[in-house]
């Protein structure tokens, strides 16, 4: 993350430089306005000098006009550059998130990521733009104002009036750390709140079915209360710090009138000089108050920056060699040797002692009880999670030496949960290859969903997903299969993705696939043994291990686990028919 800021400064320092030059110029011009006004006051005594007054007013107007132009320029460069940082960083973080392995998505909650993406990035932007302006302004304005006070009025009066300054420094230091801590806590409460909101919305069906509205409301209220409390703590702290600084800053004005008044009476300074001095004090109060603001914004920016770093610091746990296999032909010969695997957040082995060989063109099936490890294996083949060296080989090469892009480009995977994007159905099917949009009906036919689509209001142009027509679970599953087919990979994995259709349809789709995608390798995971009985080889999983393997008749002949499962399903089917 630090490198992101460094890299950005390296490329865009000149934008800041132009902005800062104009900012400093404006500050410098501003110094002359009180001086001119002070001079006018003194000149008022001499009536015949009205011409001089006219020229002074004219020069004030010129300065004011230049200030207006200059302000536009520095705003454009400094604020605009901070926005550019926000835009580039958002793109970088998003791409970093997309590059992560699956354990990242298992670990991070959506609402939390969203908050970091929006709120935290915004805080960092504030620290990179407005706070830079304020900081430079504060330092430069106060320095030149003090110099002007010494030079144009009186050093002793300047010193006496600025006695409260160090107190402001102490207040700032004290509150700075506190604000950072409170702000970090505030961001955490926002993350929790967005998580809860996002989850309640995503799981609204469950909430409704179980009449959990009150429970969810209570949970929301609890989180909302925590967010409110965190905000209030910040408001109290910031609310105390700001008036304290303001109070000590205005003390300077009181001291200026007290000591300056005496000096006018003693004729050490003129009345005009006192007016000038008071204007300078006024100009100093603002930067002094800005110190409080800058501290607040920088501390918030730092806290948010640490939160963004937590995302950027997480590295994909899957080893990736350089991507140089693009031109290599993918045959899809899989060999697995003594594979064992634990999910990164778990102590228990999800797979153990797995040995298998899948030859190109074969159809294999994984069957077994729920939670027995069937879905885990395809996830490892697709490099979603890291595996030990020498345990999985694709076309004779260790999977750890192959880039995930090469593997995923060549394998069509249909996961258990079918997710469709908010776009027309044909675009969902041709998602990976928009140029194949015209062929969408062909793939839909193989996936047995063509007829269903023709019945939709706008057929293939019907908008589906969150903002469109709601498809049934089975329809969604079949559209997902069509989408995988449009990828035209030589290796297809169907991970129990037909659970929402009846056995006959599942069988028909699998047979369709076998007939249409001849020479393609297929792994089919299913709970319905009947649907996969034609597979070349069936692996029976139990508790993370392969307990039986063979084709349908071989497995039946064993009269073991597979036989038991098959008989049970036959009886269930018969009972349903009766
Ligand atoms: N992301 C994960 N993190 C931790 N453990 C997981 C994760 N996904 C699955 N598991 C665990 O790994 C084991 C195997 O899960 P897997 O999803 O492979 O089973 P499955 O045979 O496909 O089950 P099902 O038929 O219900 O889909 C289970 O004990 C499960 O709880």
Overall radius of gyration: 36 Å
Terminal Cα span: 65 Å
Calculate the mean pLDDT score and round it: 84
Which CATH C-level class of the largest domain is it?
Answer: Mainly Alpha
Main structural class: alpha/beta
Query: Care to count the β-strands?
Result: 10
The helix-strand sequence is HHHHHHHHHHEEEHEEHEHHHHEHEEEHH
Domains (count): 2
What is the CATH topology assignment of the largest domain? ABC transporter transmembrane region fold
InterPro entries: AAA+_ATPase (IPR003593), ABC1_TM_dom (IPR011527), ABC1_TM_sf (IPR036640), ABC_transporter-like_ATP-bd (IPR003439), ABC_transporter-like_CS (IPR017871), P-loop_NTPase (IPR027417), Type_1_exporter (IPR039421)
Domain ABC transmembrane type-1: 17-300
Protein name: ABC transporter ATP-binding protein
Domain ABC transporter: 334-568
Q: Your description of this structure?
A:
This protein has 578 residues and is α/β, with parallel strands linked by helices. It folds into two domains: 2-313, ABC transporter type 1, transmembrane domain (ABC transporter transmembrane region fold, Up-down Bundle); 334-415 and 489-577, P-loop containing nucleotide triphosphate hydrolases (Rossmann fold, 3-Layer(aba) Sandwich). The chain has 19 helices and ten strands. The chain has helices at 2-43, 50-98, 102-107, 110-128, 130-153, 155-161, 165-202, 204-209, 213-265, 271-313, 376-381, 404-410, 425-429, 440-446, 450-454, 473-486, 503-516, 552-558, 561-577, and strands at 334-342, 349-358, 363-368, 392-394, 397-398, 411-414, 491-495, 521-525, 537-542, 545-550. The strands form two sheets. The protein has a six-stranded mixed sheet. A four-stranded antiparallel sheet has the order 2-1-4-5. Helix 17 (503-516) links the parallel strand 7 (491-495) and strand 8 (521-525). Helix 1 packs antiparallel against helix 2 (50-98), helix 2 runs antiparallel to helix 4 and helix 7 packs parallel to helix 10 (271-313). It is elongated. Adenosine-5'-triphosphate binds at residues 106, 343, 345-346, 350, 368, 370-376, 496, 541.
């Amino acid at each position: 993350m630090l490198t992101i800021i460094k890299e950005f400064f390296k490329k865009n320092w000149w934008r800041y430089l132009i902005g800062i030059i104009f900012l400093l110029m404006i500050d410098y011009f501003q110094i002359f306005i009180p001086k001119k006004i002070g001079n006018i006051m003194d000149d008022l005594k001499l009536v015949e000098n009205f011409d001089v007054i006219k020229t002074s007013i004219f020069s004030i107007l010129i300065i004011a006009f230049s200030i207006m132009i200059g302000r536009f320029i520095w705003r454009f460069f400094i604020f605009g550059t901070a926005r550019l940082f926000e835009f580039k960083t958002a793109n970088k973080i998003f791409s970093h998130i997309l590059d992560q392995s699956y354990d990242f998505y298992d670990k991070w909650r959506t609402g939390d990521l969203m908050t970091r993406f929006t709120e935290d990035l915004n805080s960092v932007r504030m620290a990179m733009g407005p706070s830079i302006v304020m900081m430079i302004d504060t330092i430069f304005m106060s320095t030149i104002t003090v110099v002007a006070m010494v030079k144009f009025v009186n050093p002793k009066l300047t010193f006496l009036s600025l006695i409260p300054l160090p107190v402001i420094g102490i207040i700032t230091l004290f509150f700075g750390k506190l604000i950072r801590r409170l702000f970090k806590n505030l961001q955490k409460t926002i993350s929790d709140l967005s998580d809860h909101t996002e989850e309640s919305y995503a799981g609204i069906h469950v909430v409704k079915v179980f009449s959990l509205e009150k429970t969810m409301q209570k949970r929301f209220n609890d989180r909302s209360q925590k967010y409110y409390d965190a905000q209030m703590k910040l408001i109290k702290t910031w609310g105390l710090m700001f008036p304290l600084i303001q109070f000590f800053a205005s003390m300077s004005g009181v001291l200026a009138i007290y000591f300056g008044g005496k000096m006018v009476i003693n004729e050490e300074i003129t009345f005009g000089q006192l007016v000038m001095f008071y204007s300078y004090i006024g100009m100093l109060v603002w930067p002094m108050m800005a110190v409080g603001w800058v501290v607040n914004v920088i501390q918030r920016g730092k806290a948010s920056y640490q939160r963004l770093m937590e995302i950027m610091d997480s590295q994909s746990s899957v080893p990736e060699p350089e991507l140089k296999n693009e031109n290599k032909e993918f045959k899809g010969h899989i060999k697995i040797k003594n594979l064992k695997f634990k999910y990164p957040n778990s102590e228990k082995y999800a797979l153990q002692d797995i040995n298998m060989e899948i030859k190109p063109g074969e159809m294999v099936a994984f069957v077994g009880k729920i939670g027995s490890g069937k879905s885990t294996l395809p996830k490892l083949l697709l490099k979603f999670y890291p595996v030990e060296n020498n345990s999985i080989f694709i076309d004779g090469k260790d999977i750890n030496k192959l880039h995930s892009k090469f593997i995923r480009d060549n394998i069509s995977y249909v996961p258990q949960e079918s997710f469709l994007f908010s776009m027309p159905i044909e675009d969902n099917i041709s998602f990976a290859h928009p140029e194949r949009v015209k062929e969408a009906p062909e793939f839909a036919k193989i996936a047995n969903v063509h007829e269903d689509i023709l019945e939709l209001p706008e057929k293939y142009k019907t908008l589906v997903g969150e903002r469109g027509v709601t498809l049934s679970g089975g329809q969604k599953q079949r559209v997902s299969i069509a989408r995988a087919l449009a990828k035209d990979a030589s290796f297809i994995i169907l991970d129990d993705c037909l659970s929402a259709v009846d056995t006959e349809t599942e069988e028909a789709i699998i047979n369709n696939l076998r007939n249409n995608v001849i020479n393609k390798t297929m792994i089919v995971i299913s709970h319905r043994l009947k649907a996969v009985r034609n597979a070349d080889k069936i692996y029976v999983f139990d508790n993370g291990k392969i307990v039986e393997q063979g084709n349908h008749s071989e497995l039946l002949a064993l009269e073991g686990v597979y036989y038991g499962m098959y008989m049970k399903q036959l009886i269930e089917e018969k009972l349903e028919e009766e």
